[in-house]
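Give me the fold.
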Amino acid sequence: MIERSQFEAAYLGRQQRTRRLLADSDIDVALISLGRELPWLIGYQAMPLERITCLYMDAKGTTRLIIPKLEAPRVRALPGLELVPWVDGEDPFELLGSMIRDSKVVAVDDRFMSGWLLPLMGRAPRVSFRSATAFLNPLRRQKDALEIEMLGLAASAADRVAERLIRGEIAVQNRREVEVAKDIGDALRQEGHSGVNFAIVGSGPNSASPHHEPSSRLIVPGDALVLDFGGTYSIDDEPGYCSDTTRTFVVGEIPEGFSELYEVLYRAQAAAREGIRVDMSGKEADLVARNVITEAGYGEYFVHRLGHGIGLDEHEDPYLSSDNLLPLEAGTAFSIEPGIYLPGRFGARIEDIVILEEAGVRALNQSPRELVVL
């Protein structure tokens, strides 16, 4: 069991790395508001309200959380974190502006609302503003040991749901997509998730829609069935890490032509798990799977990127896509999820969350990838 002290040590370590980066980047202050950078740094998720909550960090070691007084009791103590509550009727932008007025360069995260940034710029007219998300992304891409452990717990919990489907504990045949989606969401919670982020259930021709919204369609024998689901796995009140897995099944009997399609997809996903290496670009990683699919004649039916990063966010850096020329680094976590979709007929996708290590890819999801008839 992960202890609170491990989370605390991780937050303090991330703050230390951030301060070093501030100094190296000639940034005087970072202001972090509603994005995932805030819980990543201090373990606190701000409520997305009109009242501003903002973490102030400078390279000298000062760490303050400017927060509405009514929300301050939700913040747990962290060494070195100073709470600066403000009450309705006060001007929080004047308060924050007084802290940055003598700074030259201030970085704000990408979720910092314009309704906050504009009045703040008026209080500190000589300050030059930059993106904090841009310089924090390289830090967040490389997961620390705690994050990798949390992602592993999330993936294992999602695997248990997939295995319940394979065992028939979650019935699919002659049930509506929305009913199966609800059962999958319930199972994610039963297996330890604190929240359900999505449960895609695409049957028959709907399986050819990668982001299909579960409908009232009845799942019947002869259907391909794409099940893509994930949630947020938390321990106590700490920020949760995301799961995301896809398994494709057939119901009752295999539709004509589906076995051939699935065999190509299976080889492509295996090739990516076995072939992606440190220092490959996101584009090169995408091509490892895409080339297998293209050579088999299905290239035009693989209509999305190979994968996305994952952590506190369902989708974050790095992206395994044709427009990402940056090298992949050891310690990054991402999905490997090739898909083939034949409009009006059927589709299939296989998705694992993996950690990239110096020796190659380590898959966190371990539920069966072979085609299963339910």
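The CA atoms of residues 101 and 124 lie 5 Å apart.
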